[in-house]
Amino acid sequence: MTGTLIDLRHLIAEVGAGVVERDQESRPPFAEFELLKRARIGALRLPVEDGGGGASLTDLFASVIDLAEADPNVAHSLRNHYQFVETLLRRPRTEDERWLSLVREGRLFGLAATELSRKKAGLREPGFETVVTATGDGLRLSGTKFYSTGNLYADLLVVAAQGPDGEPARIIVPVDRPGVVVERDWDGIGQRFTGSGTTRFENTPVHADDFVKPGTWYGDVPYLATFPQLYLTAIIAGILRRVATDATELVRAKQRTFYHAAADQPVDDPILQQTVGYLASQAFVAEAAVLAAAAALQQATESRGGPDEASLALRASLRAAKAKVVVDEQALRAASELFDVGGGTAVRQINHLDRHWRNIRTLASHNPRTYKAKAIGAYEISGTPLPNGGFF
């Protein structure tokens, strides 16, 4: 990213400096998000000539990996913002300039889409219980959303609802508008500071220019969900890199070893060296897989409106799915093997090394790899198209 990479590295270092203390104190990264907003982190994908960072998709995913290594909660909390920006960039329209101008200023967008209902997750056009109704006092938005990742730190929320005409609608409302309630009730075992709990709209006023057109959630973009799914794998790749770094530091800091160890000094122990070597190699392969899928997604994005868009989008979705299946499994194993190099010291709460496994497990649960592997297998064997709704 021309002209932004050095500043971005410094910014990421600042975010990562207090990550263990935040975990110990159960403190959400509000201060860190103020730094990110001032740095206009959300404008990375906007062209340089438009006041953005000029990042390609590969640049962006490399930065997500870096940020996730520092703090996966912060990286995850930006996912819905970057997804919204990507939808604007992939189908550019003059009427969306008002939203892009807010991105350019450093404002962050959250998402209020998922509802805890009995409807199947990920449907392309699921229908929503959250509704906009016409009243004597104007339009009003009412409903409850869950899995509201990042909304605690967002300035505006992209809301999926049924419009006053009964058709799907996307509405953007500021988080400080009357009737908007973002609760801190997320109780997941990992990603504890992403605000992934409840967002409620209690008779919230809505104006005509709050609507994003077209109202349909996915529109005509094939495999639009590839971006947010690959984003999750990028976060896991970043955590895996941190696992490898923590393993290295544990071995370097060890002052004693077992009487039956293969060497007198832990740093010279071939068993520990081998374990660290495996962890570092897994981190490298995970990052390479994410960036290869990101490059395919870049090609699909650049083909928008062309004859190859559908086939390139399918290829990108396949690469992202294959990366997830392998990276999820390897990362979960690696987060456990980390403790093999540290012994009793590694399990002390002061180190908070268990956060890696908890965060990976939580991220991987968004779309179990078993379902992804089945879809990949059906495609490879019979050419069965991948599902083209959410999660792909």
Structure description:
It comes from Paractinoplanes toevensis. It is found in: Cytoplasm. Residues 119-203 form the Acyl-CoA oxidase/dehydrogenase middle domain. Belongs to the DszC flavin monooxygenase family. With 392 residues, the protein is an alpha+beta fold. It folds into three domains: 5-108, Acyl-CoA dehydrogenase/oxidase, N-terminal domain (Butyryl-Coa Dehydrogenase, subunit A, domain 1); 112-212, Butyryl-CoA Dehydrogenase, subunit A, domain 2 (Beta Barrel); 226-382, Butyryl-CoA Dehydrogenase, subunit A, domain 3 (Up-down Bundle), CATH 1.20.140.10. The protein is built from twelve helices and eight strands. The strands form two sheets. A four-stranded mixed β-sheet has the order 1-4-5-8, covered by helices on one side. The protein has a four-stranded antiparallel β-sheet with strand order 2-3-7-6, with no helix packed on it. A hairpin with a 2-residue loop joins β2 (131-135) and β3 (138-145). α4 (57-70) packs antiparallel against α9, α10 (309-342) runs antiparallel to α11 (354-364) and α10 packs across α12. The two termini are 27 Å apart. The model has no long low-confidence stretch (mean pLDDT 93).
